[in-house]
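Objective 1b. Sequence-to-structure analysis of STAS/SEC14 domain-containing protein.
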Amino acid sequence: MLPPLPELTSSPHLVRDRENGWIYAHWSGVQTMEVVQTAGLHYLEMMEQEPCSHLLNDHHDVIGRFLVVNDWIVDYWAPQARKAGLRTVAQVMAPGVQVSPAVRDLMRRLAPRFHTAFFTDLAKARLWLRAQP
């Protein structure tokens, strides 16, 4: 008998990195609407407690596509994050995902709200984010 499959859905690890002046969100596994909403609301609570203009959003270990969450991110989370002080986002994508329709849709819809750059390399994303005002 085969062992059970590991749980693929997970919530991100959110850390305030005061040394670099950003919040680091490391996502892994399959991202469901519930996971994204729970983490997004936690991020907004972190911003409410202590505003931060930079987000390092690491999806390098995410599995699958997430078009279903884009409406919630754009229509609910992004306006709240902008109001709370977010201005700049370094987005690290899983290999091969940067060209997906879901990511293209999200990039297009977030562009008016945030200065955003997309990367497949975490080190390059960190360097870019450090250079932003």
